[in-house]
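Our working data are protein records whose layout never changes between entries. Instead of coordinates, the fold is spelled out as a row of discrete tokens. Here is such a record, shown just as it appears in the course material:
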Amino acid sequence: MIIEATATDFAALLAGKAPRNLFLVNDSELAPPEILAMLAGLAATIRTDFEPAAWMLVEASEIVGLCSLVRAPEQGELNIGYGVAPTRQGRGIAGRAIGEILHWARHDPRVDLVTAETAIGNLASQRVLERNGFVRCGERHDAEDGQLICWQVRTS
């Protein structure tokens, strides 16, 4: 299930604690501290104009991943990024979470299009998007991440 991640939730995660009576993955890192800090800051910036800006991915009361908007929405387009703790990958968690986010997006009149990007070699993430109806719409090069595949799905 997805649960909106608030500033309070991110503060707890950054302190190494689980918010809302949930549990943290105990056998791997949810995300490196610098990534958590970056996501918290990004969500705080986006949240001034659009909410929700981030979600916790929760399975059996355990926070197993995160999904967030990558940039402020423009003209009905949401760009998302997501990740699952290494020891929880390969269990369908990302697929279910993206499905839930698309369900929410299809019922939010502010959203017309959801986009995402995957690394060329990230076949698992590509399958997650394809299974949720995303179509490949191009490629681009990112200075940090290299060559990326661009994906999109219409919500209206």
User: Anything to note?
Assistant: Residues 33-47 form the longest helix (15 residues). The domain at 2-154 is CATH 3.40.630.30 (Aminopeptidase).
